Amino acid sequence: MQLKPFLLDAWLDHYEHDIEFNLAASTGPTWTVNDILALADDETRHRFLNHNLVYSRPAGANSLREAIAEMQRVPVEAVQIVTGASEALVALMWLAAEPGANVIIPLPGFTTFSALPESLGLETRCYRVRRENGFRIDPDEIKRLADSKTKLILINSPHNPTGATIGDDEMEALHDFTADRGIQLVSDEVYHPIYHGRQTKSAARLPHATVISDLSKAFSIAGVRTGWMIEHDAQRRQQYWTARAYFSISNTTTGEILSEIAIRKREAVLGKTQEVATRNLKLLERLMADHRDVLGWIPPQGGMTAFPWLVSGELLSLENARPFCQAATECGILLAPGDCFDAPSHFRLGFAAAGDNFSKALDRFGAFVKSWSARMVTV
Ligand SMILES: Cc1ncc(COP(=O)(O)O)c(C=O)c1O
Fold first, then answer.
1. Whose CA is nearest to atom 4 of ligand 1?
2. Ligand 1 pocket, mutate which of 26, 86, 305 (most atoms under 8 A from CB)
3. What is the pLDDT of residues 322-346, one digit of tens each?
4. Domains in the chain: ranges and CATH
5. Which of 80, 90, 149, 220 could form a disulfide with 28 if both were Cys (CB 3.0 to 4.6 A apart)?
6. pTM of the entire structure?
7. CA–CA distances in Å: residue 240 to residues 67, 124, 206, 248
C-alpha cells in the first residue's frame, strides 16, 4: 500500500513557519485558548480547568454532540465526533474499499480525496471543476461517471481550492440520484457557512446524505482537531464508531470542551471569519482588477480561498505556476502551487488567514506581480 506525497502539506511545512505573509493557508483569523475561554460562562471555564485528562467517548463527549446536533438540526444520535474531517475521510474511504469499487471525487480537490482511495486500491473517477465552466460543480457530469460499482460520490461545497458552491436544488437532485442507486453521497462542508454569493444549506437535512465538517476552516480553530460526521443511517453509524475506536479511540477532552464553547458561541466565532473574509475578498477583488493583464480568476462563492491563474508570462509559467509561487516566497509571500491540487497552471490564495495583515500582504503581492511580469517580458 502506497500513499502519494502530500504536496500541499510538504510545501506549507517547508515555508509556513518563517514566511512574512501567509496567503497559502485556507483557514481564517486565529483564536487563542484565552479568546475561546473568554466566550464561556464561569461554570464552563471551571469545567475546562478542572476536567480529568482521560479518554473521551468514541462517539464524542455527549455535550459536544448535543451542541453540534442543535446547530445542525439533527438528532444527537446522528452525530459522530472524529479527529478532524481528515479522520472522517479515512473512515469513509476505508469502508468503501471493496474489490472493483470506484469513488467519484472533484478535480481539482483536497489531496486526501484522491490519495486515500488510490492507496486502498479503489478506482477514482474525477469530475472537473473547470475555469472554462466558471468553476461550476456539474451534477450531470457527476451522474455520468457513476455506475453499479460506485460506492461513494463526494461533493465539497464551498469547494477547496476554487470557492465554488453547489445549489441546494442540485444537491437535492444528486441526493435522490444516489439514494435510488444505493450510492453514498458525502458532503464535505468544512467551509460552510462562509459565503460571498448565494447562501446554501447544509446537506444534514437530506436523509440519505453523509455530512463531514470540522472546526478547522469556517470556525478557524484547527488546533482543537475536532471534526464530525452527520449520519442518519444507524448501520453506517455503527461502522464509523468501530472505525474511529480503532483509529484514534476518542478526541482529546481539552479540545472537546473548547469546541463546545466555540459551537455554542458560533455567532461570534463564525461572525469573525465571515467579516474578515468579506473585507479581505473586497481588497483581493481590487488587486485582481489592477493586475488583470497578468492574473485571471473567478471570484469564490464561498470559503476562504481563490484559485487564480497566470494569463501572461513565459509559456512554462502559464502551464506551471510553481516557479511563480517559488519566486513569491523570496518576496515574503506564500501562495500554494496548483499542482498540490492537480491543477498546475493555478495557484491557491487564502484571503482570511492573514486577518488584518492582509492589506499589507496584498501591497507586497502586487509589487511582486509587477516585478515578476516585467521580468517575464524581458526573458
Ligand atoms: C475540503 C477539506 N476537507 C477536509 C479537510 C480536513 O481538515 P481537518 O482534518 O482539519 O478537519 C480539509 C483540510 O484542508 C479540506 O480542505
1. 85
2. 86
3. 999 999 999 999 999 999 999 999 9
4. 7-31+268-371 (3.90.1150.10), 52-264 (3.40.640.10)
5. 220
6. 0.96
7. 20, 22, 19, 12
